[in-house]
Amino acid sequence: MTYSVAVSGASGYAGGEILRILAAHPDVEIRTVTAHSNAGQPLIQHQPHLRSLAHLTLTETTPEILAGHDIVFLALPHGQSGQYTDALGDAALVIDAGADHRLESAADWDTFYGGDFHEPWVYGVPELLTGGVKQRARLVGASRIAAPGCNASTVSLSLAPGVAAGVIDAGDIVTVLAVGPSGAGKALKPNLLASEILGTANPYAVGGTHRHIPEIRQALAAAGAPADGIRISFTPVLVPMARGILATSTAPIANDATDAEIRAAWESPYGDETFVQLLPAGQFPRTADVVGANTALMGLAIDRAANRVVVVTAVDNLVKGTAGAAVQSMNIALGLAEGTALSVNGVAP
After folding, report:
1. The one catalytic residue among 150, 163, 239, 253
2. Residue 344: beta bridge partners?
3. Cβ-based burial of 5 (10 A; exposed 0-12, middle 13-18, buried ≥19)
4. What is the DSSP track for 196-241?
5. Distance between CA 234 and CA 338 in Å, rounded?
6. Who's near 336: CB < 8 A, 6+ residues apart?
7. Sign of torsion, CA 243 251 328 211?
8. Which of 6, 14, 44, 105 could link 69 by a cystine bridge, Cβ 3.0 to 4.6 Å?
């Protein structure tokens, strides 16, 4: 069976990455691509690297245009997906790459986003430990999926194994992330101009204000941490690389866990995973190793002097962080081979 697909926000970074991956997918036909201000223009004008899709023209984003497809991807800014998802009852599968359906708490939505709150959908991070099982089990047969925030899924995948095994204390998490500007979208913003970011590193959303914080708390609570006992200091730093996240997350060692127990806590859930890989002891990933790949590469250190576990994780924010996670979740939901159209190989140099 070939599934018909519509992709909204197709002129943006996330929409373009969804299209790049789907263009190599043998089970889908990209039938419709939509945009807002760019409607009526050739897709190739905004995504010149997608040569195999040069025949497509961007159309207006409306519920009527999106309706009638087997699969709809929404790659829109936060607060814009809900107006369409409410009208897509006929679509067999809808995947939102925005934030509108990620959070379970209306209070968290009001605090970090604001505007209308929409019901939470199945979270699209298959390898994440939730309630003693992988989130993959909840994605099977799902018809509505919320793709993750890139920073949130990176930190959650980094720490959930330790939380689930009880070897780290979720009450004192510190995470610092080096992130590329593509995570902020394609809209013109003065602070993202090349002259502003080249040759410098810039912290932003400092002091507990980043919108991915409640998403991380939600994921770690699902992994087994007491919801009222999760404390996280989250500091993202914008660095001059187009793609990538390098997240360094630390937490205190709990329950007098031994080095072997700590290492086993991550080896056990990730040892047989294709797209989340724990590196050998003493090795740590680079963002260059995951560019274009659907992999999260992870290094683990045990700092006995500080009594903390250190996890360093690298992802491509546009692939494993967003579009790759969305397509991987789509494959699972439809009963297709999970890795279809997704690669573990990065692009180098």
Report:
1. 150
2. none
3. buried
4. HHTT--EE-STTTT-TTHHHHHHHHHHHT--GGG--EEEEEEE-S-
5. 31
6. 27, 330
7. negative
8. 6
Q: Please enumerate in sequence order all residues whose Cβ is within 8 A of that of 189, keeping only pairs 6 or more positions apart, or say none.
A: none
What's the CA gap between 156 and 315, in Å, rounded? 13
Predicted TM-score of the model (pTM): 0.96
The structure tokens 């204390």 sit at 169
Report, as an integer, the average pLDDT of 180-197. 86
What b/e string do you get for 62-74 counting C-beta neighbours within 10 Å, with b at 16 or more?
A: eeebbeebbbbbb
Phi, psi of 265 (to 5 degrees): -60, -30
User: For the segment 226-248, what is each residue's pLDDT rounded down to a tens digit?
Assistant: 989 999 999 999 999 999 999 99
Strands 71-74 and 58-60: unpaired
pLDDT tens, position by position, 10-43: 999 999 999 999 999 999 999 999 999 999 999 9
Q: What 3-state class would DSSP assign to 138?
A: helix
pLDDT digits (tens, 9 = 90+) for 75-123: 999 889 988 887 887 668 999 999 999 999 999 999 999 999 999 999 9
Contact 168, 253 (CB under 8 A): yes
42 prior amide bond cis, ω within 30: no
Q: Is 150 a catalytic residue?
A: yes
Phi, psi torsion values for 308, nearest 5 degrees? -135, 150
CA–CA distances in Å: residue 339 to residues 23, 59, 79, 328, 330: 14, 30, 30, 6, 10
